[in-house]
Write a structure and sequence with these properties.
two-stranded antiparallel sheet; globular; Beta-lactamase; 341 residues; alpha+beta; 2 domains; 32% helix; 8-stranded antiparallel β-sheet
Length: 341
């Protein structure tokens, strides 16, 4: 990792914990290059799609309270969707990426409008309008397709059913419940000005890295771009495994493998990716002879991964404010270290 950082291929924090023992804690690079603020163990990073785990836990809490049914159709909770979506897509399918919906960010016009949404509710509503334009790629439940649209819908269901904003609900019932004191959904002005938060640096075609604020929205969504420190993600993993966020029945329902995920094509020259299994939120990956649960995230200037290895007590966190292509090797190194134990 030090070699990658020395060649400016990695900037971020890596944390490996076994039980209550910190095995490795290293930070490299700059959180803010202009102000020469270095990344440290408590630096807060954008998380990308790790956020989806917080959304899934929120939905499962509402299932536990009897306010949401996994087999219920989307139309029972929200209006404004086409009949084939509202009447066929279930909460289960939204959680497992089998709804047939895709990625609202790929719908024409989305990135043109994003800069005009300069308020929290305006951003959520504007995004939802594009989610409602998304169409089914296949019959719900018949195939797998990773779906940002599906998770934005889940977050909107959280709002509708709980009576709180999505952001307030996650703050109160996930972050606070797990003692995640350096986590939140920060607005763009906060991201730019808060010295605790790492700036995102994206690689240009020239090879130079520049701040990538203009490639992010005013605030994150239920599908991505919450913020947290590495120790906070360890706390989340421990709280989930310790039944502090859900009771035992609903924790098992959340994390138990549902079906194998179709394999992604390997990168040129790289080994095939390990087998993966879908769950409600944190996925399962077969790493050697062990299963790891967790999630990753990637967006311009954001590359993240958190994995835990039940019942060994291992938790591995990588948070980077560089693009994901430069930090894949860090995930591999962390896995190798854990597999040696």
């Amino acid at each position: 990792m030090a070699d990658l950082a020395a060649h400016d291929q990695f900037s971020g924090t890596v944390l490996l914990v076994n039980g209550n023992r910190t095995v490795l804690s290293r930070s490299y690079g700059m959180a803010d290059k202009q102000k020469e603020i270095r990344n440290g163990p408590d630096t807060i990073y954008g998380l990308g799609s790790i956020t989806k785990m917080f959304t899934a836990v929120s939905i499962m809490q509402l299932v536990q309270r009897g306010k949401v049914e996994l087999t219920e159709k989307l139309g029972a909770y929200l209006d404004g969707f086409p009949a084939d979506v509202a009447g066929k897509v279930t909460v289960h399918q939204l959680l497992t990426h089998t709804s047939g919906l895709g990625d609202y960010m790929q719908i024409k016009g989305f990135f043109t409008e994003v800069p005009t949404w300069t308020g929290v509710q305006q951003f959520m509503d504007g995004t939802l309008a594009y989610v409602r334009k998304d169409t089914l790629s296949f019959a719900p439940g018949s195939a797998y397709q990773y779906s940002n649209s599906g998770y934005h819908i889940l977050g909107t269901i959280v709002e509708k059913v709980s009576g709180q904003s999505y952001f307030d609900y996650v703050r109160d019932r996930v972050f606070a419940a797990a003692d995640m004191t350096r986590s939140g959904f920060y607005t763009m002005p906060q991201w730019k000005s808060d010295k605790r938060i790492a700036h995102p640096y994206a690689t240009q075609t020239s090879g130079h890295r520049v701040e990538a604020f203009d490639q992010h929205g005013f605030i994150g969504t239920p599908a991505g771009d919450a913020f947290a420190s590495a120790p906070d993600l360890v706390r989340f993993a421990k709280a989930l495994q310790g039944r502090e966020l859900l009771d035992s029945v609903h924790t098992e329902l959340l994390v138990s493998p549902k079906f194998p995920v179709p394999p992604l094509p390997p990168r040129p020259g790289a080994a095939p990716l390990p087998p993966r299994f879908a769950t409600y939120g944190p996925g399962w990956t077969l790493v050697g002879d062990r299963f790891a649960s967790g999630h990753s995230g990637a967006s311009p200037g954001v590359a993240t991964n958190v994995e835990w290895y039940p019942p060994t007590g291992w938790v591995a966190v990588k948070l980077s404010n560089y693009d994901f292509q430069t930090s894949i090797g860090v995930d591999t190194l962390a896995r190798k270290l854990i597999m040696r134990q």
